[in-house]
């Protein structure tokens, strides 16, 4: 890992919120590339969350759960979960209720166990053709860093979204070998599917410097084919950081900041870049304060605070020992 720059590989909350496709067909992306569902899904995959919302909104009235799920998942990714709470009530009898549970888990970490009980009961008790309940359960497990349980929920699925989320879980568990095997299975299902390509990039980033350039080409191709997004640009930035191409890293990160000035991954990678290039402590601290301001509940901030507390305790312990 390149310090915390591989936080991008370890994925922020939005990255756990993978799109949801019906179990009826893994090849839906290839079947109808002109459908609203295709565009909403693909914009979501590449991190253009507002673009996904804009495809769904005009058809939101009377749309099914599958299409609407992209709009609400995009709201979650944009930290606008309150819109989900407003739209999806507790008595909702569609699979969209699962997305409300995700929002509640993010907002109330102390209730994650209760929320997981509700989700697992739904997975066990209902036939889930939309795959929404299963994915939502895995997302909350990931948020709570229960990656093994997330993998159990997703195990055996040939749904590309479930497989992609499994790849992320395996990478968090440092099982690159198993992640590679799963990506190979995704390639057998649909080699040119956007998620398959992204999963290849994730594995390449995690595999070290020799494979990083492969990831760069994937992100570059998507930037050219669609449009640069913070997700794609941060992927490129991690490659540049890993290969010590710091000027190139700064260039794409600054481009990412023009897309979203307070993007989670961008702020972390800018902080890493500042450290690697010997920038002042004030510069590093500025990025850190922005992270704390905009993402106080994020795993990165919580982990940092935990390590800081541990360090302070060790300092106190050894200062007492020395005084004695």
From TrEMBL:
InterPro entries in alphabetical order: Coatomer_esu, TPR-like_helical_dom_sf
Keywords: Cytoplasm, Cytoplasmic vesicle, ER-Golgi transport, Golgi apparatus, Membrane, Protein transport, Transport
Protein name, entry field: Coatomer subunit epsilon
Membrane topology category: Peripheral membrane protein
Coarse class of the protein's main subcellular location: membrane
Source organism of the structure: Haematobia irritans (Horn fly)
Record flagged with keyword Nucleus: no
Entry superkingdom: Eukaryota
Gene Ontology biological process terms, A to Z: endoplasmic reticulum to Golgi vesicle-mediated transport; intra-Golgi vesicle-mediated transport; protein transport; retrograde vesicle-mediated transport, Golgi to endoplasmic reticulum
Cross-referenced Pfam families: Coatomer_E (PF04733)
SUPFAM superfamilies: TPR-like (SSF48452)
GO molecular function, one term: structural molecule activity
Any Gene Ontology CC annotation: COPI vesicle coat
Subcellular localization, as worded in the UniProt entry: Cytoplasmic vesicle, COPI-coated vesicle membrane; Golgi apparatus membrane
Assembly: Oligomeric complex that consists of at least the alpha, beta, beta', gamma, delta, epsilon and zeta subunits.
Family to which the UniProt record says this protein belongs: Belongs to the COPE family.
Keyword Endoplasmic reticulum attached: no
């Amino acid at each position: 890992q390149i310090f915390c720059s591989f936080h991008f590989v370890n994925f922020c909350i939005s990255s756990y919120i993978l799109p949801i496709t019906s179990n009826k067909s893994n090849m839906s992306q290839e079947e109808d590339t002109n459908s609203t569902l295709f565009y909403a899904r693909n914009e979501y995959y590449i991190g253009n969350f507002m673009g996904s919302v804009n495809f769904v909104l005009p058809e939101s009235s009377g749309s099914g759960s599958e299409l609407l799920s992209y709009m609400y998942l995009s709201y979650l990714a944009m930290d606008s979960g309150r819109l989900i709470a407003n739209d999806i009530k507790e008595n909702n009898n569609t699979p969209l209720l699962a997305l409300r549970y995700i929002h509640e888990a993010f907002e109330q970490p102390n209730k994650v166990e209760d929320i997981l009980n509700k989700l697992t009961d739904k997975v066990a008790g209902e036939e889930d053709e939309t795959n929404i309940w299963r994915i939502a359960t895995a997302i909350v497990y990931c948020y709570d860093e229960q990656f093994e349980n997330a993998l159990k929920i997703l195990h055996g699925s040939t749904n590309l979204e479930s497989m992609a989320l499994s790849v992320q879980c395996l990478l968090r568990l440092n099982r690159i070998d198993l992640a590679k095997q799963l990506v190979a299975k995704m390639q057998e299902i649909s080699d040119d599917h956007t998620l398959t390509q992204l999963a290849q990039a994730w594995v390449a980033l995690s595999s070290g410097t020799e494979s990083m350039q492969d990831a760069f080409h994937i992100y570059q191709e998507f930037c050219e084919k669609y449009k640069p997004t913070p997700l794609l640009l941060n992927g490129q930035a991690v490659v540049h950081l890993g290969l010590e191409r710091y000027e190139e890293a700064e260039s794409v990160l600054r481009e990412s900041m023009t897309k979203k000035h307070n993007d989670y991954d961008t702020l972390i990678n800018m902080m890493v870049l500042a450290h690697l290039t010997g920038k002042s402590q004030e510069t590093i601290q500025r990025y850190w304060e922005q992270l704390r301001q905009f993402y106080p509940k994020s795993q990165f901030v919580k982990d940092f605070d935990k390590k800081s507390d541990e360090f302070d305790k060790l300092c106190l312990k050894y200062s007492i020992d020395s005084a004695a």
